[in-house]
Design brief:
The protein has about 190 residues and is mainly alpha-helical. Helix content is about 60%, strand content about 10%. The chain has seven helices and three strands; from the N terminus they run αβααββαααα. The relative contact order is 0.10.
């Protein structure tokens, strides 16, 4: 469901929009970041055709606009896109929102954390807000587990509670690692 202040985009389009919001870019550069073994693609792969399809959809929605071209030695000129001011605000808001479903921790939350890191933005606020949501999910699951009369249903809730504990450990690891100073290179 689309919120009035936020478009309802698939995760691939959010990633493309967030990358364009960092700095004007073209599809080839975005596809390089989302390739299977690349910085983003290692965690959420987006094929080159999907990147270009996402750019088309984002432009149709008025979230990005063409701002120029770049010569290419590997084919036609590359169209450079920039995020609109409101799209940049929307991306910032999206990056600060915790996921509300436990299964979204694996993809949506990890991508948000990677994108925040690319921006040199502390994940502390997002981690704190995510912890509150995880606590609420755990409370709801515990209540259901306790009320379950069937042993299989109880076992399923126990399984889901293990996922909650794993999500909590993940958040703790992010929090600890983000508090450490970055290693100096060079």
């Amino acid at each position: 469901m689309e919120k009035p202040d936020r478009p309802d985009l698939p995760l691939a389009e959010w990633i493309v929009l967030a990358l364009v919001a960092e700095r004007p870019s073209h599809g080839f550069a975005i596809a390089a970041l989302t390739a299977e073994s690349a910085e983003i693609g290692a965690f959420w792969y987006i094929s080159r055709p999907m990147v270009y399809r996402s750019i088309t959809r984002l432009a149709e929605r008025g979230l990005i606009t063409p701002v120029g071209t770049e010569e290419s030695d590997r084919g036609p000129q590359r169209m450079i896109y920039a995020a609109t001011r409101s799209a940049k605000t929307t991306v910032g808001r999206w990056l600060s929102e915790p996921v509300t479903q436990l299964f979204d921790v694996r993809a949506d939350l990890t991508i948000k954390l990677l994108l925040l890191q690319r921006r040199d933005t502390s994940p502390a606020r997002l981690v704190e807000r995510q912890r509150v949501v995880i606590d609420e999910i755990e409370e709801s699951l515990r209540t259901r587990e306790e009320r379950a009369a069937d042993h299989l249903v109880r076992a399923i809730y126990t399984w889901r509670l293990e996922h909650v504990r794993a999500a909590r450990r993940f958040l703790e690891a992010v929090e600890v690692d983000s508090a450490r100073p970055a290693a100096k290179t060079g």
